Amino acid sequence: MATFLYRLGRFSFRRRRLVLMLWIAVLAAVGIGAAGVSSSTSDTFAIPGTQSQKALDLLEKEFPQASADGATARVVFEAPAGQKLTSAAHKAEVESLVGDLKSASQVANVVDPYTGGTVSKDGSVAYAQVTYKVAQADVTDAARADLEHVAEQGERAGLAVSMGGTAVNEESHQSAAELIGIVIAALVMVITFGSLVAAGLPLLTALFGVLAAICGITVATSFIDLSSSTSTLALMLGLAVAIDYALFIVSRYRGELKEGHDPEEAAGRALGTAGSAVVFAGLTVVIALAGLSVIGIKILSDIGLGAAFAVVVAVVIALTLLPAMLGFAGGRISAGKLKTRRMRAIEQGEREPMGVRWARFVLRNPVKVLGVSVAGLLLLAIPALSLQLGMPGDSTATPGSTQRIAYDTVTDGFGAGYNGPLTVVVDARGSDDPKAAAQDAVTLLDDLPDVASVSPVSFNETGDVALIRAVPGSSPTSEDTVGLVSDIRDRGAALHDDTGAELMVTGTTALNIDISGKLNDALIPYLCVVVGLALILLMLVFRSILVPLKAAAGFLLSVLATLGVVVAVFQWGWLADVFGVDQTGPIVSVLPIFMVGVVFGLAMDYQVFLVTRMREEYVHGAEPKEAVIAGFRHGARVVTAAAVIMISVFAGFLFSDTALIKSIGLGLAAAVFFDAFVVRMTIVPAVMALLGRRAWALPGRLDRILPNVDVEGEKLRHLLEEDTERTEGDGIPEPVHTGKG
């Protein structure tokens, strides 16, 4: 691979105009395609194989008029202060609005608040439940416009009208403050390289790649239904890794120039060495993200595959467009007019870099440093023991939005449980007396202490499948409601034994509980798969057993500490004002497992970029501790800059008004900080110092079995040395390329 990348780097450098024009053509094509499509996004959560999904499928078959899997909306009416909706004038107005809802586009059914019993006891609040003929993803703009028109009419009549439910999309606006991450990234690269040209190239190619990836995802939404968070997370991760990958290659290119190679040769060598590491690092991220699709939850598959696509584009950009841009920059990339006196002293060998001094400190005190670092991460991980998972809904909507107002109004007027009623299905097709079985189910529900109300039984046409609505006494996301659903299902087993009827719980609340449970159960197995993958990949790269074990253990520490921070902020409310968290609650269910996949990829990035140089020095004869110092001398500055850039980009998403995006931004920023600075820059050298030569030991049998992937380009270096000796022996001078356009 290193030899291929070496040739690719030289080709892209030499044919830079062609490469640039091809990429511009690609960007123009996907840009035009994205501008001309009508995208379709949604946040529908569905999970096959669960009881709630099984019940929905049965309702779709036996109660087609109910549109069990259709989108829903709840239109909440509130009377002016001191007045009641039961007055003749207000009642007439509400009934007129309900009539408009029944004739609205795509509406299947509307429950009138006066006939459906959804008027509060004091008469101040009422709501109409709207069911649509289509799923959430298929609700048209015209249908949503009809909803808004009803709300406007109600407002003009003096009523307060708010709307919630899956048919009502909460608009997510990306704050301009997120650009702060890009600005900080640019400043970090200027400080790292001391050159505007060297700092600008990674940022330019990263933006180019992210734009191409986002346009590609937008084009894909015209063919498939994707989660609305797909593009945002692809932007977040794609931008961060694209800058990092370009940063590593540019840094290596400058190093090759400093060793006396001409620009084209330096570009080839940079891609053959750092480029190989970029390919491996990108591959680990892609595998971890794409692996999320095997869990079987659509939104997780969408964001995983979308982010993986953005990473693939970032890798391809780094291997093709970046060396072409290096060709345009030529020798100017080494001209550093912005270098400080300290940077110049380090380059001239008059002063040790801070990374080297830090490595020497850790190597002198490995036990103390290791103990403090591990203890600190474990302490931060303590809140993770109380991790609670939940799904986003109207309760987590932005304060002041119509969804949040509707949720709070219903809670004040009726009780929190009315925001998440349970749909109980009695499949009595195997019962001798379906009506008696359904009545037994009603009695069962009435006897439960946390059930606020139970609706009358509705039967299908054949009279063997019953539908019952039960309202919990607690909010949809509370532990009491989770326990209630579990209790109903447990008692349903006894009902089946007595009557032969199967009792199932479904609805949005039950679906969310099942999804959270499925994700919670999948977290540990997925973590084991990811750690196992890490061990295999790192064993291939470093040809060692202890180094991969140490890397995997560090990865686990990073994940646990990060989960602890997320729980402390978003669930416990610590520093909530600082991070702009308006309401605490369960952690979004997809966050932990998604974060495991992403953090795994990022952890392997830093592991590869830092430790491959250590191995390279060790293979060349350096003592173990000197190899660690050499690795820090060449890689610490770039790894630090890459980590700061990633933290800045991820932290910028804390300004998002969406709970999922905000929590992922904080989680990934914290994960990068812990993994880069605590694990890779502190724990790794401490462990390497304690292990000594044993760190690089590999049993002979494994050494023969494992293929040599040569991530650090050792074979390429030997090949180039042989070519140089042969060229010098023939008396033919090597051509010198200026790198000018």
UniProtKB/TrEMBL annotation:
It comes from the Bacteria. It is a multi-pass membrane protein. It is found in: Cell membrane. Residues 722-741 are annotated as: Disordered. The lineage of its organism: Bacteria, Bacillati, Actinomycetota, Actinomycetes, Kitasatosporales. Belongs to the resistance-nodulation-cell division (RND) (TC 2.A.6) family. MmpL subfamily. Pfam families: MMPL. InterPro entries: MMPL_dom, Mycobact_MmpL, SSD. Keywords: Cell membrane, Membrane, Transmembrane, Transmembrane helix. SUPFAM superfamilies: Multidrug efflux transporter AcrB transmembrane domain. Gene3D superfamilies: Multidrug efflux transporter AcrB transmembrane domain. The chain crosses the membrane at residues 179-199, 206-224, 230-250, 271-297, 303-329, 367-385, 523-542, 554-575, 587-606, 638-656, 668-691. This is MMPL family transporter. Its main location: membrane. Residues 179-328, 525-690 form the SSD domain. It comes from Streptomyces phaeochromogenes.
